[in-house]
Amino acid sequence: WRARTRGEWATCREDLQSRLIARLGGFPGERPPLDAVVLETTDLADYRQEKVVFQSEPGIYAPCYVLTPYTVKPPYRPVIALHGHGMGGAAHVIGMTRGTTTRQAEEEHIALHNYDYGRQLARRGFMVFALEQRGFGERMEAHPGMITGSELWQSSCRALAFNTLLLGKTLLGLRVWDVMRTIDYIQSRPEPLIKGVGCLGLSG
Q1: For residue 75, is the peptide bond before it cis, meaning its omega torsion is within 30 degrees of 0?
Q2: Which DSSP helix (H) or strand (E) runs through 182?
């Protein structure tokens, strides 16, 4: 990186961006219509919780929880809250448990790691978008050798990572693409939003 002028900086930035995208395995060639659908809506004390799906790649839909605060007036401040590893996925980010036999373990896990940061942000007036990342929660895929049952750390992350490499892609690259499409979805929402978007997460 030897940029000394704005023009050299722009050239270096473009080169770095193309190299980074190549190392991520590239991105899908098209941005299909989002075709977003609200699956369910729940009114809670401090915010409205929606579960939506939108099209990330042709025929591939990404689930996402949207928390819209009642405690502030629009324009809202949008934040993408990404979950870490484990079976809970986006549910843990908004303070929900996913299993029946693991409910107590999940609640302890959420409390120990301060995992419900999406819910906490919504209560503080942010509009939160908790995306379900590939390989976790509802997007977990069964595969040979997968631990069965209700294990707290269960995921299909490893198998998906191997399979994407066989296709010349990377799982990280596909997850980055899903976040990019989440930004597209945020921009498509009807609510007034401030310019820019925040992002935070845990592990993943």
Answers
A1: yes
A2: helix 171-188
